[in-house]
Write a structure and sequence with these properties.
This protein is an alpha+beta fold. It is 72% helix and 8% strand. The protein has 16 helices and 6 strands. The strands form 2 sheets. Strands 3-6-5-4 form a 4-stranded antiparallel sheet.
């Protein structure tokens, strides 16, 4: 990989600013043109009269994921056996520790410490789990089935909806941005690429299993069919599209053209698709933000603490296990970061574009860049520890 490929581009460098502008644009859109986003979201794939997936959002989210997947050379996964300890540590942290600490921290802050600020009686309207047909007035988990605009939906405590978004972030490790963080911290790029590929494959199995389990523990709807459908649409489809298109392009155009031309064109697409999705998300949540502007802060605090905790655990474990600095850095940064593209996609599919769960995953995007840049700086200052 060349320096140009790893360096932060214009969109990545100012991602926090773009996210902030999209939040503002979405809120203004919700206030002055509330029917626009609703019209787009009504273009959906319906099953038994209930909307399962918004077509515009599905298109945006595919283009969020495809540029990430096409960059991965899965032949590198075979070489991971040469670095058993770094790979093992990353997998243990990402799948045996991180989802459960996220649940615990989010529950403590959102369900106990901040519940009175969020509103003990505040409720959120979410989708009825895919494939479940319950009569109006019945209970499912902590939710109640209601009829809304002719469609059966559920009302759940608002803080639990935020908790659902945090859970989905906790079970979606490692984004393409890790390639940037690893490069800036002067980590081992080979290890970083391998772990991006391995995590993408592991997500096909464990994302739905662990995510569904923790949603059930949190007394939230557990839409198993929708979880599987979400993984199929937002992970498997772009993964296979990326794999086969990369293989075809490299075979016909060569690796040099693929890296210098094709990837250059794709670079801003993920961010643009993400920002368009955020505008839609916040056009629905504008009233919540304007009525309680501290909502984002209540969600951001547990997410930030979770990031710092997982980074610390992995970084210390890497030192204890005798890693080199070059392998310790990507292991810690991969554990600390979230695959927010998948989390946003899944929360929208499972709970709806206007849900608190979707808002919580967006807050994950908002804090990711400044927090990860701070951790990159910390890594560079502590290189001497290794």
């Amino acid at each position: 990989m060349t320096e140009k490929q790893h360096n932060m581009g214009f969109f990545e460098r100012y991602l926090t600013l773009w996210v902030g502008l999209c939040i503002g644009a979405g809120i203004l859109l919700g206030v002055y043109a509330p029917e626009f986003a609703k019209t787009l979201d009504s273009m959906s794939i319906d099953v038994n009269g209930a909307p399962v997936a918004s077509i515009p959002i599905a298109i945006c989210l595919f283009f969020m994921m495809y540029p990430i997947m096409v960059k991965i050379d899965f032949t590198e996964v075979v070489k991971a056996g040469k670095s058993i300890k770094p790979v093992s540590l990353t997998l243990i942290v990402n799948w045996a520790i991180k989802p459960f600490t996220m649940y615990g921290i989010a529950y403590l802050f959102l369900g106990v410490l901040f519940q009175q600020f969020i509103g003990t009686d505040a409720v959120d309207l979410v989708k009825l789990p895919f494939g479940l047909d319950l009569p109006v007035g019945s209970y499912y988990g902590s939710g109640t089935v209601v009829m809304h605009d002719g469609v059966k939906m559920m009302t759940v405590p608002l803080w639990r909806s935020y908790l659902a978004g945090c859970i989905l972030l906790g079970v979606a490790p490692c984004t393409a941005m890790v390639l940037v963080w690893g490069y800036l911290a002067k980590g081992n790029p080979g290890h970083t690429l391998v772990m991006v590929a391995i995590n993408s494959l592991v997500m096909l199995v464990l994302f739905g299993v662990i995510g569904g389990f923790l949603l059930g523990v949190g007394q939230l709807p557990v839409p198993w069919e929708a979880l599987l459908l979400s993984i199929s649409i937002y992970v498997a489809l772009p993964l296979f599209a990326g794999y086969f298109s990369r293989k075809w392009i490299v075979a016909h155009k060569g690796l040099d053209w693929f890296e210098k031309k094709f990837l250059h064109i794709l670079t801003p697409i993920t961010i643009i698709a993400l920002l368009l999705t955020l505008v839609l998300l916040f056009s629905f949540k504008g009233d919540v933000i304007t009525e309680n502007p501290l909502t984002i802060l209540w969600i951001a605090i547990p997410l930030a603490l979770q990031t710092l905790l997982i980074f610390s655990v992995t970084y210390i474990a890497a030192k204890w296990w005798g890693f080199s600095y070059e392998n310790a850095v990507p292991s810690a940064l991969i554990g600390a970061s979230n695959h927010f593209e998948v989390a946003i996609a899944t929360s929208v599919m499972l709970f709806g574009l206007s849900s608190g769960a979707a808002l919580a995953t967006v807050v994950g995007v908002l804090i990711e860049v400044p927090l990860m840049l701070a951790l990159v700086g910390f890594c560079k200052r502590t290189k001497g520890w290794f």
